[in-house]
Specification:
It contains 21 helices and 9 strands. It is α/β, with parallel strands linked by helices. The chain has 4 domains: about 120 residues, Rossmann fold; about 100 residues, Serine Threonine Protein Phosphatase 5, Tetratricopeptide repeat, CATH 1.25.40; about 160 residues, DNA Cyclobutane Dipyrimidine Photolyase, subunit A, domain 3 (Orthogonal Bundle), CATH 1.10.579.10; about 60 residues, no CATH class. β1, α1 and β2 form a beta-alpha-beta unit. The chain is globular and about 75 Å long.
Length: about 500
């Protein structure tokens, strides 16, 4: 009797609950991983970020005979079922919006082919559905910590049958990869075992120091068991454990309030009149805001495909509460670059930073000048990512409003913007332009993107001028021309 095991966000052999469950019931297991072009394109995951996943699959393949495909998931699974005569397919449960859709599609294929479909819970410390709906993180955390499930498992002996199916080396040349070495899947175990969780709370806010765990990419792809991470951190750093809980809080919100995928959690903040100015947005996406601390963060993100958590908050606050640009722009920007990108967590974090999401109090403002002075006191971080400014006094770099730098002029005066921002959030100031955000779904359209001129298209969001109701599809549409390349993406305007 044979079963298929489909790896997704659990790229490991150790303490893999789905694989454990499959091996308990079947002695022949067919391990499969699918590089789905549709998912890769939707997440713009080609290049450096894709290389990291490829390396993770290479590591996994060292311990198991793994069949790999580069095609739509449903097509690959149907091929494996027909060829292998498997009786069941095992995989982990999915709680992301796209993940649930993908599992439903796999389930339909299994039903059509007469194969049992089995989802196994893994990847979280507490089932998202176990806790009654909570809107405030502290309330969630108090209950979450009492439900932690640390039961680990051991995979039983099984055989991988020899089948005429592709292995990684057979499809590698087709994969859209670009060399990347900032993170290496092989370093996961070493990082976890050597990290000093006891110091986490004291050092976590200083981006110039390599003193955060940097475990997020390994957790994102399940290269390490979340239970193993928790056991290492528990009793050493309560703050780190709380960070793990934040991740699960956003999945809790997504499950109980699914509209937050495209809509602000707070109804009273759904009417914010964002300015969405083209010159502000271009300056932000290209790291030319004139605030060195902000621009250093943008450069780190683009170059390394990872960003220190303090800087994630600084950038998100600057975009939404200084430039008054819709949080969805930032969510897409992070999607295009973050190695550890998780749609559910990213949406939750951006809404939180914009004070439009769950757990919004207090109204948080991150002053980029004070943030630089407090968390980069010697300008080590700024000078690392902006080496052209390395010869300037640190005090100048921290406060570009006080000192005139041989650098980009600050796109706005932070202090002049604060009053406007607070009034805009309270709903007392009319919008200065006629841009509004509307999201339209059409066939395979993932989401919609940037507003310039009349109508702009990218692979993420479409922003429409008031009253315009044109919907276009993925890919360059007839009658549109490219007018701008910024932040790694091309944008199109109607002729």
């Amino acid at each position: 009797m044979r079963a298929i095991y489909l790896f997704k966000r659990d790229l490991r052999m150790k303490d893999n609950r789905g694989l454990c469950e499959a091996s308990k019931n079947y002695k022949e297991i067919i391990p499969v991983f699918v590089f789905d072009p549709q998912i890769i394109n939707q997440l713009k995951a080609q290049g450096k970020r894709f290389y990291y996943v490829l390396r993770a699959i290479e590591e996994l393949s060292k311990g198991i005979k793994l069949y790999c495909f580069y095609e739509r998931t449903e097509e690959a699974i149907r091929k494996v079922i027909k060829l292998s005569k498997a009786k069941a397919l095992y995989t982990t449960s999915s709680y992301s919006w796209e993940g649930r859709d993908r599992n439903e599609a796999i389930k339909r294929v299994c039903s059509e082919e007469g194969v049992k479909f089995v989802e196994v819970f893994d990847g979280f410390l507490v089932r998202p559905e176990l806790i009654e709906p909570k809107k405030v993180y502290t309330h969630f955390y108090k209950e979450w910590i009492t439900h932690i499930d640390l039961q680990q498992c051991n995979t039983e002996y099984f055989v991988v049958p020899e089948l005429p199916l592709p292995r990684l080396q057979d499809i590698r040349e087709k994969l859209p990869v670009e060399h990347y070495d900032t993170f290496d899947p092989q370093e996961c175990k070493k990082r976890l075992e050597s990290y000093q969780f006891e110091n986490y709370e004291k050092v976590r806010d200083y981006p110039a120091l390599d003193l955060t765990s940097k475990l997020s990419p390994y957790i994102r792809f399940g290269i390490v068991s979340i239970r193993e991470v928790f056991k290492r951190a528990y009793g050493r750093s309560e703050q780190f454990v709380k960070e793990l809980a934040w991740r699960e809080f956003w999945y809790h919100i997504a499950l109980h309030f699914p509209q937050t995928r495209d809509l602000e959690f707070l109804e009273k903040r759904r009417g914010i009149r964002w300015e969405n100015r083209e010159n502000y947005l271009k300056a932000f996406l290209s790291g030319k805001t004139g605030y060195p601390f902000v621009d250093a963060g943008i450069r780190q993100l683009i170059e390394e495909k990872w960003l220190h958590n303090r800087m994630r908050m600084v950038l998100a606050s600057f975009l939404t509460k200084v430039l008054l640009i819709d949080w969805r722009f930032g969510e897409v920007f992070f999607m295009e670059h973050l190695l550890d990108y998780d749609h559910v967590v990213n949406v939750g974090n951006w809404q939180w930073s914009a004070s439009v999401g769950a757990d919004p109090k207090p109204f948080r403002l991150f002053n980029p000048i004070l943030q630089a002075q407090k968390y980069d006191p010697e300008c080590i971080y700024i000078k690392k990512y902006l080496p052209e400014l390395a010869s300037l006094p640190c005090e100048w770099l921290q406060n570009p409003l006080k000192y005139k730098l041989p650098y980009y002029k600050p796109v706005v005066d932070y202090y002049e913007r604060i009053k406007l921002v607070k009034e805009r959030y309270s709903g007392h100031v009319p919008c200065r332009n006629d841009w509004s955000f509307r999201s339209y779904k059409a066939h395979n359209l993932l989401r919609i993107t940037l507003p310039f001129k009349n109508l702009i298209y990218s692979s993420a969001y479409i922003f429409l001028r008031e009253g315009l109701k044109k919907v276009i599809y993925r890919g360059k549409a007839e009658g549109f021309k490219s007018i701008l390349t910024v932040g790694g993406g091309k944008y199109y305007v109607r002729l």
